[in-house]
Give the backbone structure.
Amino acid sequence: MSDDSRPSPPAAPSAARTAAVIPAAGRGVRLGPGAPKALRALSGTPMLIHAVRAMAASRAVSLVVVVAPPDGAAEVRSLLDAHALPERTDFLVVPGGQSRQESVRLGLDALPPGHDIVLVHDAARPLVPVDTVDAVIEAVRDGAPAVVPALPLADTVKQVEPAGTPGEPEPVVATPERALLRAVQTPQGFDRATLVRAHETVTGEVTDDAGMVEQLGLTVVAVPGHEEAFKVTRPLDLVLAEAVLARRRLNDGF
């Protein structure tokens, strides 16, 4: 006879839910005139859609927030509606601001409660593999307040004294030790409360969200990045991205 008076074992804690914020409000002037960079076509599909699918490919990501150009939220919503996206993932579009930092903050403000891990991903990195996304999330789950995927540098790096006029020779003042340097990619992952505090506290120009967390005095950790998570900035990058997609279609039926 069973003893129904025994207390039930405690429920296992649920894994922290993850949301991804994709700032896509920039114009992408280095790609030349035309549509905003995030809306440029890559193999017939806007780069933004590739980036959204890359985030949604992770089963840990339950919400993707796209931060659109301030006057382009309706266009971006229509774009998402027109393309097949994973049904298990929710999608939200909000208008962005005048800077990347402001756009990320607006994306954070739009997050509903319950998402304790936040990824911030560049729309111009459309081909990041899901294994890289999952590695970032796992490192945050393991306790890191901020995580970046990063690659060792292939080139020697020189620190220079900037020239007063573009194109003029620049004196080299130092050669940093290459083994200690990394090229940082996205998605960058954060404990939500930490990232919110960084955006509430840190002022001035920053190049990435992890740099804001560094200014709080907290440790940012790096996990291995991937060569296919490169940023599409110049016309030559579009050629490389098309080649990567062609190889995926050939090898994986992507």
About this structure: The chain has one domain: 17-159+172-252. The first strand starts at residue 17 and ends at 23.
